[in-house]
Amino acid sequence: MSSGTASHAGATRAVASIAPIVRPAAIGDVPYIHHLLEIYAAQGNLLPRTMNELYRHLRDFFVIDVDGKVAACGALEIFTDSLGEVRSLVVDDEFKGRGFGRMLVERIAEEARAIGLKRLMALTYVAPFFHKLGFKTVAKDTLPEKVWSVCVKCYKFNSCDETAVLLEIK
Ligand SMILES: CC(C)(COP(=O)(O)OP(=O)(O)OC[C@H]1O[C@@H](n2cnc3c(N)ncnc32)[C@H](O)[C@@H]1OP(=O)(O)O)[C@@H](O)C(=O)NCCC(=O)NCCS
C-alpha cells in the first residue's frame, strides 16, 4: 500500500510502460487514500481525515491509478455556488515529479468548470506548485466562505501559516 512496500516498488519498476489513469475514486481506494493523507498529516502539511470522513466525501475524490495502484489523490470540495477548493492533494513519493499533481489539479479544475463553479482555491505550503498551474496568491480574508465555515474549526486557526491560492475559472 505505502511508499516503499514491495508491491509498490514493483509498480514503480513497471511504471514507465504503464499509462497513469485519472479517475473518480472508488470505495476500494479509501484505505490507500487514507494512508497517503496520513503521511502528510503527520508532518503537518495536510489536515488529517478519518476513514469515515473519506467514505462520506468519496465522491469529491479523484485518484491516479497506475496499474491498479493509487499513486495520487485529490479532492474538489464545494463551498458555495461559486467557490470550490482543492483538498487532500497528495502524490506518493515514488511518483512525484511525473506530472501527477498537475494532472489531478487540472482534472479537479475541469470538474469545477463542468459543474459551474467560478473560483477554485487551495490553502497550501506549496504555493509555487499552484502558481505553475495558473493559481494566484490571495489574502485569506478574500475567501470568507472558507475561513468562517472550515478554518474557524481548525486547530491551526490562530496560527495558520498556509498560503491561499486562487484560480479564476474561465
Ligand atoms: C505538491 C505535489 C502535489 C506536487 O506533485 P507532483 O506530481 O510532484 O508535481 P508535478 O510533477 O505535477 O509538477 C507540476 C509542476 O509543478 C512544479 N512543482 C512540483 N512541486 C513543486 C514544489 N514543491 N514547489 C515548486 N514547484 C513544484 C514542477 O516542477 C512542475 O513544473 P513544470 O511543469 O514547469 O515542470 C506533491 O509534491 C505532494 O504530494 N506534496 C505533498 C503534499 C502536499 O503538500 N500537497 C499539497 C496540499 S495543498
Strand content: 25-35%
In round numbers, the mean pLDDT is 88
What strand line-up does the widest sheet have?
1-2-3-4-5-7-6
Helix content: 25-40%
Give the topology string: H per helix, E per strand: HEHHEEEHEHEHE
Reading off the top of the CATH hierarchy, the class is best stated as: Alpha Beta
Q: Give a count of the beta strands, DSSP E runs of length 2 or more.
A: 7
Bound molecules: coenzyme A
| Structural Rg | 16 Å
Q: Termini distance?
A: 38 Å
Total DSSP helices = 6
Query: Based on the structure, what is the oligomeric state of the protein chains?
Result: single chain
Principal-axis shape equals: globular
Question: Which stretches are poorly predicted, pLDDT < 50 over at least 5 residues?
Answer: 2-13
Major β-sheet profile = 7 strands, mixed
Structural class: alpha+beta
CATH topology: Aminopeptidase
Number of domains: 1
